[in-house]
From TrEMBL:
Residues 287-306 are annotated as: Disordered. It comes from Micromonospora olivasterospora. SUPFAM superfamilies: P-loop containing nucleoside triphosphate hydrolases. GO terms for biological process: peptide transport; transmembrane transport. The keyword Iron-sulfur does not apply. PROSITE patterns: ABC_TRANSPORTER_1 (PS00211), ABC_TRANSPORTER_2 (PS50893). Transmembrane segments: none annotated. Residues 29-273 form the ABC transporter domain. Keywords: ATP-binding, Nucleotide-binding, Transport. Pfam families: ABC_tran, oligo_HPY. This is Peptide/nickel transport system ATP-binding protein.
Length: 370
């Protein structure tokens, strides 16, 4: 296969794919459970399908406990999965430790929320980066090669001049600088995929944008495929090409970020957007509307609700929503925009149309009729 403009082999845009990814954590049961021999399981992730592409950021958005970190850890092969397939460049891959895991980690790197916890306080920046370069075979042969590679890494994350940072300990750096070191360490593997789990949520608001801009610059210059995990849907609009919304272990909506954030189609996405702390939008009246529209608790993942998991909180729930799991349905005529919500089933829309219609979510994501 060649690209249209050159004779060079076309590079596969899909780097990492998850198909039907599922993780149920067994939890220690109460005596009653032990006697019945049924092990309770937390349904942390169910049937998640997603694709990470070269040079693109995919945001995975949802509230705390929705399963976002578990998805990242499954993709990083830090956890065994209950079901599903992970494909790297089209090849199914399962690794559990040892050399195969190191080979996988060379291509798929993870960045964690708390850079202070992920850097060892007794070691310098030089130590952390040298180790990453050596483990992944990128330290070169000579001391001069290593020195050049260390400087290049620090320059790539704009910690310049490198000499100012190489011999610093983590506590001598600001939160933003520490996260840049953690990113440099991930880049030491020369990866194709970065899994960034809430990479800025522990940083001061004033420096978040700088770190997000750095990640965006890296995806553009290094053509990295980036998974950006966040509970802040506003930052997804700014930073991600594509946005996926997760609720109680399942994906509920996906599409390009502009569409998902500006014209949300799933009632849960609307709730997330309405409850985001946007001073322009959230007025007293706005808050009241949010409360009316399903402010409440996410369900227990030990016994998730049947049908759509959002139905107990959903102001638009129909009898069908508590019984049948909605598949991903295309939203209106917008290719690539989907929502797992029966409101977007053409049959439902036809049945609900007319003067007695209940609330429907229109193509613009707002109520069409009431
Ligand atoms: N090792 C584990 N054993 C049992 N349950 C777990 C384990 N790890 C996560 N869970 C549960 O799985 C569910 C999803 O957790 P996860 O951390 O993936 O969510 P999250 O969306 O990343 O939340 P947060 O933003 O708070 O990190 C939660 O109910 C959590 O308690």
């Amino acid at each position: 296969m060649t690209s249209p403009d050159t004779d060079a082999p076309a590079v596969r845009e899909e780097v990492l794919e998850a198909i039907g990814l599922t993780k149920h954590f067994p939890v220690r049961g109460r005596l009653r459970d032990l006697l019945s021999r049924a092990t309770p399981r937390v349904h942390a992730v169910d049937d998640v399908t997603l694709t990470l592409r070269r040079g693109r950021v995919t945001a995975l958005v949802g509230e705390s406990g929705s399963g976002k970190s578990t998805v990242a850890r499954l993709l990083a092969q830090l956890y065994p999965r209950t079901a599903g397939t992970i494909r790297l460049h089209g090849e199914p891959v399962t690794v559990r430790g040892g050399r195969p895991f190191r080979a996988y980690a060379r291509r798929v790197q993870m960045i964690f929320q708390d850079p202070f916890a992920s850097l060892n306080p007794v070691h310098t920046v030089r130590y952390h980066l040298t180790r990453a370069l050596r483990v992944h075979g990128n330290a070169g042969r000579t001391a001069a090669d290593l020195d050049a590679a260390l400087r290049a890494l620090l320059e790539r994350v704009t910690l310049t001049p490198p000499d100012r940072y190489l011999d610093k300990f983590p506590h001598e750096l600001s939160g933003g600088q520490r996260q840049r070191v953690a990113i440099a360490r991930a880049l030491g593997a020369d990866p194709e995929v970065l899994l960034a789990d809430e990479p800025v949520s522990m940083l001061d608001v004033s420096i978040r944008l700088g770190v997000l801009n750095l990640l965006r610059d890296l995806k553009e210059r290094l053509r990295l495929a980036v998974l950006y995990i966040t509970h802040d849907i506003a930052s997804a609009r700014y930073f991600a090409d594509e946005t996926l919304v997760m609720y109680a272990g399942r994906l509920v909506e996906g599409g390009d970020s502009e569409t998902v954030t500006q014209r949300p189609a799933h009632p849960y996405t609307r709730l997330l957007i309405d409850s985001a702390p946007d001073p322009d939008r959230i007025t007293g009246a706005g808050r009241a509307a949010v409360a009316e529209r399903g402010d409440g608790e996410p369900p227990s993942l030990l016994r998730p609700p049947p049908g759509c998991r959002f139905h107990p909180r959903c102001p638009y729930a129909m009898p069908r929503c508590g019984a049948d799991l909605p598949p991903p349905l295309q939203v209106g005529d917008r290719p690539g925009h989907w929502a797992a919500c029966w409101l977007h089933d053409p049959a439902t829309r036809d049945a609900q149309a007319g003067p007695t219609a209940l609330a429907l979510v229109g193509d613009d994501g707002r109520e069409a009729t009431r």
